[in-house]
Specification:
Radius of gyration: 13 Å
CATH topology: Glutaredoxin
CATH architecture: 3-Layer(aba) Sandwich
Low-confidence stretches: none
Organism: Caloramator mitchellensis
CATH superfamily: Glutaredoxin
Number of strands: 5
Helix content: 40-55%
Number of helices: 4
Mean pLDDT: 97
Protein name: Thioredoxin
Structural class: alpha/beta
Strand content: 25-35%
Strand order of the largest sheet: 1-3-2-4-5
Oligomer: single chain
Distance between the termini: 23 Å
Largest sheet: 5 strands, mixed
CATH class: Alpha Beta
Length: about 110
């Protein structure tokens, strides 16, 4: 997982990975701290999926640019287009089902 610090870095990450997950968090979010390791572990099953983290408390302009107003927020991009958005009350099972569905279409 990499840490993205600017809108340009976020855009470049999304465009350069066929399947990209961007995890938006903020320093004071305890749920975010608990959820991120679970997402990292889940994504080990999907080696073609790239994961990046954006700390909104250090990258304020990203919140507006990507319409992120609650934390955590997870965005799934495929070929540069947003395919899924999960925010605040995130079901890992539902998110993994979404990943699995698109992963099979792209990589199996």
């Amino acid at each position: 997982m990499i840490l993205l610090r600017t809108n340009d870095e976020i855009s470049q990450f999304i465009q350069s990975n066929q399947m990209a997950v961007v995890y938006f968090t903020t320093e004071g979010c305890n749920v975010c701290k608990v959820l991120l390791p679970k997402i990292e572990e889940m994504l080990r099953e999907y080696p073609e999926v790239s994961l990046a983290k954006v700390d909104i408390s250090k990258t304020l302009e990203a919140a507006g640019a990507y319409s992120v107003f609650a934390y955590p927020t997870i965005l799934l991009y495929i070929d540069g287009k947003e395919f899924s958005r999960e925010s605040r009350y995130i079901s890992l099972e539902t998110f993994e089902e979404t990943i699995k569905k698109y992963y099979k279409l792209l990589f199996d």
